[in-house]
Amino acid sequence: MDLQDTKNSLHADIVIIGAGLTGLTLNYLLRSEGLKVVVVEARDRVGGRIHTLHKKGEPTVEMGATWFGSKHIHLVSLLKELGLGWFPQRLGKTAIYEYMSTSPPQLVTLPDNDEPSFRIKGGTSELIKALNTCLSSDQLLLSTRVTAINDNGDHLVVQTDSGTIKAVRVVSTLPPNLFQSKIATSPGLPERLLELMQQTHTWMGESIKFALTFKEPFWRNAGTSGTVFSNTGPVTEMYDHADFNDEYFALKGFLNGAYHSVNKEERLKIILGQLEKYYGARVREYINFHEVVWAHEPFTYAPYEGHIFPHQHNGHEQFRQPFMEGRLYLAGSETAPDFPGYMDGAVASAQFVARQLRKEL
Question: What family is this (predicted)?
């Protein structure tokens, strides 16, 4: 849908800002309520921080949300409801551990009692695809930025860069810091809330995710491992990222966030330099190099005004209150009291807001 085709104005019962996991789950939960729901997304794609790359001859490569556990009951329940499968992350029995730069990497035995992590069969984007089937073309506005939300008495007016939408209720699923830095409100939100949003950590905001695809999983040979933990970096963690059928292979990891200002070619060079210590020259036989620097994603990340701790203010109780006379809700993984910053938090947040909206509309 394009606002230009509607003479630049729409009417809706609910406007959802953001077509990531929270926004799409919320629309899915409200699908049978008889409400007109419009989802507005600044990107040219749905999914938000779920970003799966598909390339022929390679495994599906996750550049965003990837893993979950059995304790993530809201997500697991949704996957079952949608008929989606999952498989355990391959860790192996050992990991390469680099404690300090002055000591050589060591091969250590992983404990048997660690709770397994899982990945969605076919890629995390399968979840987004399943949810997106419940979103009709006249409900979704892609490449549309929300710039302001104004109280117009009996409704809210959502101002975008291509027109306006009048709504009974508005739900923002943006990271709180991104919301307060990009969207103006009239009347303004409480000062204490704005300060809180400004100081709330954005999940994945500092992450640099990379993957190298290969023809053969040479890291599974005796005496080595695809699981890496390093205190010295620049690669801090890495895992075997083969597909479910174990047909296509990759190593996927995280780069120290300090390297966001380095260009892609230089990042690849330093990654290969570190991995060569573990695997030798075979690491240079990669097929493709993929990366996403999430600090460079303007529809996810906004700079903080001061130092922020991981998960700072995630799940704060103020995020569960409606604002603007009860018409504006804040949702998203950062707002969930349990497992904020995870996919489970995103789903739980959507479920909470759906319950509140059902009571009111």
Answer: Belongs to the flavin monoamine oxidase family.
